[in-house]
């Protein structure tokens, strides 16, 4: 009798535990964690393939294989290849935030040193040289510090047939970069700082992409090339 009671009690306890909200929450949390881990693997694999082989090498199968997940998971979590591309691009943008934040701080520091109380530059030549130093160093260190990111950025920005959703993401990313470029260009005092900032951004991007490809600028350093461009904004 006592044994039977104990068996019933154990069974009842199991039923109570199985209905315990905290236990259900724990199970749900573990499932959510596994889901996020799988999604992160898929996105990392997508970006790795883009960096090493380009967008043309992407497929659900190649991504799943590189991520070490079941083939069905890429469709289950993201649906279409375009959704994978868009979400992976957002992950790339997140990886660029520290670099862009450093550029903003560099801009503030340069202005703090060379901008007068009236907002005008105390020494425009020194300021231009400072800008060329900052971005020349950024480009020069790309092949050793940011090959992965530059390869991905180049692949996305030069994608000829992006979907509407991806094109919107790329445009927003470039708009953000243009705003950073404008922080550096506006103090120079050119007649059209917005256009100058775009020209400066495109030049920096081309030099960056050249630094990780087989095509490089000849006869001058990246800093010297930027100096020629920046001085032209003053005229």
TrEMBL record:
The keyword ATP-binding is annotated on this UniProt entry: no
Domain annotation HTH tetR-type: ranges: 36-96
Highest taxon above the source species: Bacteria
Pfam families noted in UniProt: TetR_N
Coiled-coil segments on the chain, per record: none
DNA-binding residues (ranges): 59-78
UniProt keyword annotation of Lipid biosynthesis present: no
Single GO molecular function: DNA binding
Keywords: DNA-binding
Region of interest called Disordered, as start-end residue ranges on this chain: 1-31
Protein name: AcrR family transcriptional regulator
């Amino acid at each position: 009798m006592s044994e039977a009671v104990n068996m019933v009690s154990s069974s009842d306890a199991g039923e109570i535990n199985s209905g315990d909200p905290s236990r259900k929450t724990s199970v749900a949390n573990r499932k959510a964690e596994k889901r996020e881990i799988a999604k992160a693997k898929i996105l990392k694999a997508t970006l790795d393939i883009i960096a090493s082989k380009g967008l043309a090498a992407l497929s659900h199968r190649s991504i799943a294989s590189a991520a070490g997940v079941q083939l069905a998971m890429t469709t289950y979590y993201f649906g279409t290849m375009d959704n994978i591309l868009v979400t992976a691009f957002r992950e790339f943008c997140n990886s660029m935030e520290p670099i862009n934040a450093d550029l903003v701080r560099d801009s503030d520091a340069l202005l703090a040193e060379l901008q007068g109380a009236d907002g005008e530059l105390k020494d425009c030549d020194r300021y231009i040289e400072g800008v060329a130093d900052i971005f020349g160093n950024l480009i020069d260190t790309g092949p050793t510090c940011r090959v992965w990111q530059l390869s991905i950025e180049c692949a996305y920005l030069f994608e000829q047939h992006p979907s509407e959703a991806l094109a919107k993401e790329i445009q927003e990313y470039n708009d953000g970069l243009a705003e950073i470029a404008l922080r550096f260009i506006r103090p120079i005092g050119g007649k059209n700082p917005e256009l100058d900032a775009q020209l400066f951004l495109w030049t920096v991007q081309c030099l960056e992409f050249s630094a990780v490809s087989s095509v490089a600028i000849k006869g001058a350093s990246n800093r010297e090339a930027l100096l020629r461009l920046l001085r032209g904004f003053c005229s």
